[in-house]
From TrEMBL:
GO terms for biological process: phosphoenolpyruvate-dependent sugar phosphotransferase system. It comes from Candidatus Limivivens intestinipullorum. Pfam families: PTS-HPr. It comes from the Bacteria. Signal peptide: none annotated. This is HPr family phosphocarrier protein. One of its GO terms (cellular component) is cytoplasm. It is found in: Cytoplasm. The keyword Cytoplasm applies. Gene3D superfamilies: HPr-like (3.30.1340.10). Keywords: Cytoplasm, Phosphotransferase system. Residues 1-85 form the HPr domain.
Length: 85
């Protein structure tokens, strides 16, 4: 299991467009990816679950990756967060 923390820097937080891309990225890893913030933990392959978290700018999220090739998947997702959120 690999995990990393990231503080959201996007002005509007995790909104529809980056959440949709996050879902695609999480599915592409082939691993189980979870997102935790504000006391909630959701499956990162579920768009409505991510949107329901209401993650705003300045919120720290924890991304956990479990499964095949989790090291590479975690690196890829961390790069996605830095580039998009």
């Amino acid at each position: 299991m690999k995990s990393f923390k990231y503080v959201i820097t996007d002005e509007v937080g995790i909104h529809a467009r980056p959440a949709g891309i996050l879902v695609k990225e999480a599915k592409a890893t082939g691993a189980k990816v979870t997102l935790e913030a504000n006391g909630k933990t959701v499956d990162a392959t579920k768009l409505m679950a991510i949107m329901g978290m209401g993650v705003k700018k300045g919120t720290e999220v924890t991304v956990t990756v479990e499964g095949a090739d989790e090291d590479a998947a975690a690196e890829k997702l961390e790069a996605f967060f830095k580039a998009n959120l």
